[in-house]
Amino acid sequence: MNKIIEAPFNSYFGVFITLACNFRCAYCVQKITLPHQAAGQYPFVSGKQWVAALNAVASRRKKKNLFSTKKKKIAIIGGEPTLHPDFAYIINNLDNDWRITVTSNFASLFFEGKRGRLDEIKRKKGLRLNGSYHFLEGMSIDKFMENVLKTKKAGITVDTLFIVMHPEHKDQASRYREVLLKAGCEVKFQRFYGYAHGKLYPVAQANYDKNLEQSDGIRNYPAYREGFGQGRHAPVYCKMNNVLFAPNGDVYNCHYKLYTKSEDKFGNLFTDDYINTKSSEYFLCRDYGSCNPCDAEGHQFKRLDGSEFNISQYVEG
Ligand code: SF4
Ligand code: SF4
């Protein structure tokens, strides 16, 4: 039976198959909006259950023109997704109506050894991996490169590599970028989010390089500091069209809610056949002030007095 998820075709679909990770990055987006509480604990759900449920999601193809159709994009993320025991099974068995992007740190046991477990990945079409290099966790650049090249040699597309542009380690990040370019992938700096030296990043008027850095969509810095500064929980109306699947199948539209295992979910992928993610309407949230930077881009809010604002619309300050 088909599962209907009410959300526009171009909504971001992110599947968090696990929040576990082999690293403990201090700037991890899982932690930075939860400074006073632990991230939610979720069990592993088997690959068979994920595949059966996701392949049942309806309307995953859209007409592009008379002759061709678009396939639905899906991001398989975490945590570190290769830590899920059925990672390869999930990738191999999601059907061809999905276009899959996996984001990995290329540092788990999945990549260990001459070929790692890469031979288990049989799917080559409709799959790409992005990588993030976390030099502050002690992984050498040589090891990271080795794992990227091993993956490419196994016939798997590695598209973009990211390095977090930590404000205290800019020179190192720039040097590592030069090395990573030799892997033949696009290499981008990822904005540093959260606090360093008491300042909330990203900051206004910082002269970010649009060509080298991943865009964050933040133009309204006063609202960013208010809503994403991790200092309070206030009521606001919020409108978002993310569809985020927690490791237990619970469906959210907000990273903060998923990471905290909030009760504000819209249903469960494994048990519900109809889920409305309320992507086009405002809903009341009482956690404004603790929003996660992953939810900044294009984000539309409305205050209780009815005034609307958007994090991506420029406001001086
Ligand atoms: S590798 Fe990624 S998911 Fe893991 S701790 Fe670092 S930022 Fe978080
Ligand atoms: S206001 Fe912030 S915490 Fe609440 S749903 Fe929106 S993004 Fe999430």
TrEMBL record:
Residues 17-172 form the Radical SAM core domain. Its cofactor is [4Fe-4S] cluster. InterPro entries: Aldolase_TIM, MoaA_NifB_PqqE_Fe-S-bd_CS, Radical_SAM_PqqE_MftC-like, rSAM, rSAM_sf. The keyword Hydrolase does not apply. Keywords: 4Fe-4S, Iron, Iron-sulfur, Metal-binding, Oxidoreductase, S-adenosyl-L-methionine. One of its GO terms (molecular function) is metal ion binding. It comes from the Bacteria. The keyword Metal-binding applies. PANTHER family: PQQA PEPTIDE CYCLASE, RADICAL SAM DOMAIN PROTEIN. This is Radical SAM core domain-containing protein. It comes from Candidatus Ghiorseimicrobium undicola.
